[in-house]
Amino acid sequence: DYWSFNMAHVYMNNHKYLEAKNQLKKLLESTEVNTQSVLWTLANCYEELDIPEKVIPLMNAAIESDPNDPDYYLKRGDAKFYTKDLVGATEDFNQYLSLTKEDAYWVYYRLGWIKEMEKDYTGALKDYNISIDLNSSYPYIYMQKGNLLKTFLNDTTTAKRCFMKVLELETTISENTCR
Questions:
Q1: Is the distance from CB of 48 to CB of 12 less than 8 angstroms?
Q2: Alpha-carbon torsion 129, 134, 136, 141, what sign?
Q3: 11-16 — which CB contacts under 8 Å span 24+ positions?
Q4: pLDDT confidence of 6, banded at 50, 70, 90?
Q5: pTM confidence score
Q6: Measuring CA to CA, which residue among 55, 6, 15, 62 is closest to residue 35?
């Protein structure tokens, strides 16, 4: 019902994800709700709780009822990425790109990261460059590309240019990002 769904959002906005999750799970048992909205919001709770394996079946159900919504593939692909299902993540990210080009820079960034994890450094570099071509103001792309160039391709000159671009774009870099 409307009130329960709104209460779940109130819980989420107050970082009370367990309470929101419980509220949403009860809603899924009801027949008077927009199931996709509840599935999406519940998946967001599991993301915030850092339980990506719980996101996948929720997005499977959402995709089953609406296979043309690209955001479901993006969310499921991200969950698969974090559960180390790199093949599944790649399939979902490619499906996302076949349905929309919105936020494609981020998807190519993620695809590059997957290729890097698979030791396909040339493919990773290609995807990072596509990502940069689509959005040259996202500092994490340059960070990842610079690390790839320095660590695996021994190109310290280009890596340095990437790191300088990060500094240019991001005036406040967190301590964790620099480790």
A1: yes
A2: negative
A3: 12/41, 12/44, 12/45, 12/48, 15/48
A4: confident
A5: 0.84
A6: 62
